[in-house]
Amino acid sequence: MSLCDSDAVLSVIIPVLNEAVGLPTLLTELTEQCGQCPDAVEIIFVDGGSSDASTALIAASGFRLVAGPRGRARQMNVGASLASGNYLLFLHADTQLPKHAFDRVICVLESGLWGRFDVRIRGKAQMFKVISWFMNWRSRLSGIATGDQAIFVREAAFIEVGGFPDQPLMEDIALSSLLREREAPVCLRNKVETSGRRWQERGVWRTILLMWRLRYLYWRGVPAEQLASRYE
C-alpha cells in the first residue's frame, strides 16, 4: 500500500541540535519523500536549543518547528506528543532515508506494530561496511533497534509503552526492549544512510570499543546517566 492510498497519517519526528551543516540535504530529501501526498505526511522538527543556523533553515523550509528540552529522548517525546499522525517515524537529522521510505513504513504499520530499516554508515573508512553489517545482523537477531536505523511505530503502541524513557543515552534500546515484549520488529532491508562523522572524529576502533563497553554496562544495569558522561 502506498502513502497516497492509505487513510493513515505519518508523522516524522526529527530531534535537532546544531545540525545546520547537513540540514539542507535533509530538507530537500524530505520534500521529495512527501511527493504527491503532502497531506499524508507531517514533518516535525524539535530543536533542543541550537546555536547555529538550524532553526532558520528549518523555518525557511516550511516544515513545522517546535522547541523542546535538550536531550534526544525528550525532544522526540515532545514531537510525538504534538503529532497528529497515527504512525510515527523517528529520524536522526544526520540520517538519509531510502527512496519510497514512507510507503514502506505505511505498508509495515498497516499490519505490524513497529520496525526499523537496515543502516549503512556513510564515509570513506572501509570498516564502515563491516560495522553496518554487524549492526544490522545484531539488530535482526536481538530484536533491538538503534536510533540510526530510523525506528517507526504505531502511535498507540508508542503511547502504551510510555514513549522513550527519560534518559540521556540508550533511549532507543530501552524503547526497543519495551516494544519487543509486544511484538518482534519488522526489519526492512532497505538501508538508511547515517553519517560516519562521529566514528571518524573519535577513531573507528576506539568508537567500536566504547560502544560495546557502554552497551555491556547498560545490560549489566549501570544507569544511563552514568554512561552518558563516558559517551561524551
TrEMBL record:
Subcellular locations according to the entry: Cell membrane
Annotated protein name in UniProt: RSAM/selenodomain-associated transferase 2
GO cellular component, one term: plasma membrane
NCBIfam families documented for this protein: glyco_like_mftF (TIGR04283)
Molecular function via GO: glycosyltransferase activity
InterPro entries: Glyco_trans_2-like (IPR001173), Nucleotide-diphossugar_trans (IPR029044), Trfase_2_rSAM/seldom_assoc (IPR026461)
Highest taxon of source: Bacteria
PANTHER family, per the entry: GLYCOSYLTRANSFERASE, GLYCOSYLTRANSFERASE 2-LIKE DOMAIN-CONTAINING PROTEIN
Keywords: Cell membrane, Glycosyltransferase, Membrane, Transferase
All residue ranges annotated as the Glycosyltransferase 2-like domain in the record: 11-133
SUPFAM superfamilies assigned to the protein according to its UniProt record, in alphabetical order: Nucleotide-diphospho-sugar transferases
